[in-house]
Structures are given as structure tokens and as C-alpha cells.
Hints:
Blueprint: E1 10-13, E2 17-20, E3 25-28, H1 36-39, E4 44-45, H2 48-55, H3 60-71, E5 84-88, E6 91-99, H4 106-117, E7 121-128, E8 131-133
Helix pairs in contact: 2-3
Amino acid sequence: MDEYRAPDGLYLVGHSWCLHRETGRAFRGNRHSISPARTTKTQVEISPYELEGLELGLNAAERMVYVRLREEGKTVLRAGWPDLLVVDGDEIYGIEVKRQTHRVSERQQEMHAVLGRAGLRVDVVRVRGGVVVGLAEPSA
Length: 140
């Protein structure tokens, strides 16, 4: 998620929240209304899991579910899904598309490993100079 540097170490998260990373305090506001005088009036304490949910860009309902699952000790992944989900008859698999020398991120590696444990294969396909590399040829 894009981050906007605001006064006094505040960062914009989503459309209506900003947070102070050192203190873990969240504030209602946006990049146009953030000021120390305004934000201190709407300051609230939030849990570390709520802070994670804000950083992930979850809406209020998604954050409620996210916090509950995290409090139950579950790992919850949002980022790293394959770019494409392919359904070919009874076979289902993911494809991660990368250009030139772009790398698979840590979050993508983690998600792909989890999907693999669940039986879903994820292939990495590269596009170099307008040529698709690594895509299996169609079966006859």
C-alpha cells in the first residue's frame, strides 16, 4: 500500500486512518486533514493486530475477522496471491507472471508455499522481450 509521510511521524493508511508507528496510535483523518492539533483529538489505542489490519488496507469488517483469527493464533495471509488462477478441466493451478528480471517477493513465496501445501501448484512465468517463457505448451 502506498504510504504518505505526514507531520510528526504519522503515516496514511487506507482512506481514513493514519498511524504513528513508534507509539502504535491510530488517528482518523486523511492526508489533507492530518495535523498534530487535529489528530490528537481523535486519537485511539489499537491492538497490534488491528494495526496490522490497517497496514494491510483491510476495511472495518475485514479487520474484525482478521483480529479474531490472529488472536486465535492463526496466520492470516492477504498478499502474495498468484496473478492468475487457471481452470483447465479438473486441474486448477496458479500462475505468477514476472517481467524480465523481476523477482518473486517474500510474501509471494510464502503464499505459494501455503497454496502448495494445500495441493495448488503455482508456476512462475516470465515475459522477456514480448516472449512468454516458462508457460507449458497446451496438451493435445
